[in-house]
Design brief:
Layout lengths: L32 H8 L1
């Protein structure tokens, strides 16, 4: 099973809401294959 697991760095240390916080995943943006290849150079 594929699963996206986030981490929220704004939560205080030890907070149970920091790990697997999916709201941080909203910051992901889709990029083109060409852009991905630029990152890998």
């Amino acid at each position: 099973m594929d699963r996206l697991m986030g981490y929220d760095p704004t939560e205080p240390p030890g907070s149970p809401y920091a790990m697997m916080n999916s709201s941080v995943m909203d910051e992901i943006e889709e990029i083109s294959e060409e852009k991905a290849k630029e990152f890998l150079k």
